[in-house]
Amino acid sequence: MRLFVLMMCLMWSAAAMADPITPNDFRKGTDSERIEAAIREALRTGVNAIEIPRWNQQRKAAEWLIDRAILVPSDFTLVLNDCLVRLSPGTADNIITNAGARTQPLSANRNVRITGKGNAVLSGGLEAHFNPPGDKSGYRTIGILLYDTQHFTIEGFTMEETQAWAISMEHGCAYGRVANINFANTNKFPNQDGVDVRKGCHDIVIENITGVTGDDVIALTGLATPNDTARTSMQVGGRLPRNNDDIYNIIIRNVQAKCIGGHALVRLLNQDGIKMYNITVSGIFDTSTEEDIRPATGIRIGEEHYWSSRMNVLGETYNIKVDNVHTRAKTAVKVVGTLKDATFTNITSYGGISQLVEFGRQPVEGVRIEAQKL
After folding, report:
1. pLDDT band at residue 221, thresholds of 50, 70 and 90?
2. Residue 213: which of 137, 95, 293 has the closest Cα?
3. Any alpha helices (H) in 46-161, and if so which ranges?
4. In sequence order, which residues have a C-beta less than 8 Å from that of residue 356 and are 6 or more positions away?
5. In this model, does residue 231 exceed pLDDT 60?
6. Is the peptide bond before 23 cis (omega within 30 degrees of 0)?
7. For position 153, what pLDDT does the model report?
8. The pTM is what?
9. CB burial class (10 A; 0-12, 13-18, 19+) of residue 75?
């Protein structure tokens, strides 16, 4: 029995020490073709994981230039090991997306892991790949896009100069974690948000976020597209069941970042009958300085526009808890839309902001705020 256990331990140790499958195992084709070949081999052998290393043997450089999005299937791990993966000049596509976002019809994925080691960087490129740049060019402007993906992890790397939103979770994403992400955007292109959660997503943790974004650092946006049809600039997917559109059970914590486009650190927005509830936000630290454009708001909730069928009504945004926010924004907390049963505690401001709290014209109920100027 002891001999059997010893042999099994040796087998497990050998498996653990086995070299990972990488695109360097394949010599023919572009960088994208070699990455895809590595994914196919990992699926064929049942390893279900590949690693993109720092050194690209074919290119003889510490750079991987991709001419189309990396498609990650279900039950798969993509490891970015101290590498730079950049969209080739002129490539109008995501950097990474789940495989189901490209099937016809669209399909779901499960157990997707995108993880970084060392100084891993995903880059949208140095120039605009779209005309016009930003959201007018569609969902492919998003750096990492997940659609209808459950049980996922995105963590451990920098996102540099994305063509628009850096990370966006679209309808159906749930039970996931986005963590330890650093942003290096310059507001060069429109809508350079950090992390976005769209309608129909729930049970997601966003934590340990650092760096610089052009637009909102983190945004939860529940908006209906006109007639809920086709792929649009803000939503992948076709006609969707209205009862699955809500955003709920979202935790946002430990954010140390700045938005140099003058937007918000955290933005919550829902319209068109889409509900947003059970949202916890804590540990938000504004790292902007006097040399930076002052953010408009630390925490911004609701709007009186951005709706297709109707504005948000009281009771559709509720059970919101915000704690420990430190910001030099023009307004620390700005509630523009409706809000019910919400608490804002340990809100502090510095740098001579115009006001701590501002309410719009829409009704609020059961809202408690504790804020102070330093």
Report:
1. very high
2. 293
3. none
4. 331, 332, 333, 347, 349, 371, 372, 373
5. no
6. no
7. 98
8. 0.92
9. middle
